[in-house]
């Protein structure tokens, strides 16, 4: 019997490839540092039974409608806003993601960015290397205290909850805003539910960790930034378009807020003429939230398992649109 055919949009680590080898025939875009060009993607998906992709691939209706044979799109990430799930469901294609395995790693990174931004670690590092360090200055590079401060978390899903648990170690007051109340977590970490506006007004640190949806696009814009304290720090580890980047730039320049730590951007990679790049009060790693070696291997492995299940006629374990089964 012919093996199922799979297209993989980027090289995966060996443990993930071992799951696929022997079980499927695969083709691969084999460059690590460059996403598959759109025209290749459109061509490659036509005759395969499944696709394994990254957040860099725009799996919109045009791509999905070409996937005439496919049973599954297996994303190597927990977020899947790059995939037109409705289009996939219409075609009976399962969409899968990688929840759980990256929660703690991403929460660690949220904290790394928060601390680096609050205590000006990147700015200080650049200064040391520049040769401009002449003396220990009493008020040089002073930042914001994290311990005992108020942390406002927007989106208390798995990652938001893991961030809240870490905040207890810093004796922080924890506020959150979420679609639903999280009663268990309120009891566990003493988090308090507030409206978005109250969260923005009261927090010293605002952590964005909600999913990008039609409702959360530009959730944080000029008005919302205007509610924040002038000493506040905004951290976004979710998706860039949740924050209006133009408005954020203005708020940082005008010192409406004190600083921002962003792991995600409206356009990725960030174009070199992006105004934010010029600001010292912005810390801007290149979307590294889940980037520990162990976690990235787990994510790839999970995606390979999801894909194998889908192309073998099973409902994949991490399916986000189980209703696709009814269209098959
Ligand atoms: C995700 O999983 O959604 C991240 O943004 C990539 O690690």
From TrEMBL:
Gene3D superfamilies in UniProt: NAD(P)-binding Rossmann-like Domain
Start and end residues of each D-isomer specific 2-hydroxyacid dehydrogenase NAD-binding domain: 112-289
Gene Ontology CC: one annotated term: cytosol
Annotated InterPro entries: D-isomer_2-hydroxyacid_DH (IPR050223), D-isomer_2_OHA_DH_cat_dom (IPR006139), D-isomer_DH_CS (IPR029753), D-isomer_DH_CS1 (IPR029752), D-isomer_DH_NAD-bd (IPR006140), NAD(P)-bd_dom_sf (IPR036291)
SUPFAM superfamilies reported for this sequence: Formate/glycerate dehydrogenase catalytic domain-like, NAD(P)-binding Rossmann-fold domains
UniProt KW keywords: Oxidoreductase
Domain called D-isomer specific 2-hydroxyacid dehydrogenase catalytic: residue spans: 6-321
Pfam families cross-referenced by the UniProt entry: 2-Hacid_dh (PF00389), 2-Hacid_dh_C (PF02826)
Signal sequence extent: none
GO MF annotations in UniProt: glyoxylate reductase (NADPH) activity; hydroxypyruvate reductase [NAD(P)H] activity; NAD binding
Top-level taxon: Bacteria
Family to which the UniProt record says this protein belongs: Belongs to the D-isomer specific 2-hydroxyacid dehydrogenase family.
Entry protein name: D-glycerate dehydrogenase
Organism: Candidatus Segetimicrobium genomatis
């Amino acid at each position: 019997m012919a093996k199922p055919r799979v297209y993989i949009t980027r090289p995966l680590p060996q443990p993930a490839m071992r799951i696929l080898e022997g079980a499927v025939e695969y083709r691969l875009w084999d460059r690590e540092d460059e996403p598959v060009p759109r025209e290749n993607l459109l061509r490659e998906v036509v005759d395969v039974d499944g696709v394994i992709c990254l957040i860099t691939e725009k799996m919109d209706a045009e791509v999905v409608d070409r996937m005439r044979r496919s049973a599954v799109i297996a994303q190597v990430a927990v977020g899947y806003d790059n995939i037109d799930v409705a289009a996939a469901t219409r075609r009976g294609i399962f969409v899968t993601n990688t929840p759980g395995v990256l929660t703690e790693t991403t929460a660690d990174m949220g904290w790394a960015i928060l601390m680096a931004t609050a205590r000006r670690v990147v700015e200080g590092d650049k200064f040391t290397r520049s040769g401009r360090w002449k003396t220990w200055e009493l008020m040089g590079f002073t930042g914001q205290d994290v311990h005992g401060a108020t942390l406002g978390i927007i989106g208390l899903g798995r990652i938001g909850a893991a961030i809240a648990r870490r905040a207890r170690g810093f004796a922080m007051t924890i506020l959150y805003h979420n679609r639903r109340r999280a009663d268990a977590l309120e009891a566990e970490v003493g988090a308090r539910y507030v409206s978005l506006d109250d969260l923005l007004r009261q927090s010293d640190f605002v952590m964005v960790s909600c999913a990008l949806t039609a409702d959360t696009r530009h959730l944080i814009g000029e008005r919302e930034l205007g509610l924040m304290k002038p000493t506040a720090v905004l951290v976004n580890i979710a998706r860039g378009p949740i924050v209006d980047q133009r408005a954020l730039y203005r708020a940082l320049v005008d010192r409406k807020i004190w600083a921002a730590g962003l792991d995600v951007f409206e356009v990725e990679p960030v174009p070199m003429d992006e105004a934010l790049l010029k600001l010292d009060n912005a810390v801007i790693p290149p979307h590294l939230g889940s980037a520990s070696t162990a976690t990235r291997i787990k994510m790839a492995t999970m995606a390979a398992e999801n894909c194998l299940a889908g192309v073998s006629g099973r409902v994949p374990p991490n399916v986000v649109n189980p209703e696709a089964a009814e269209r098959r």
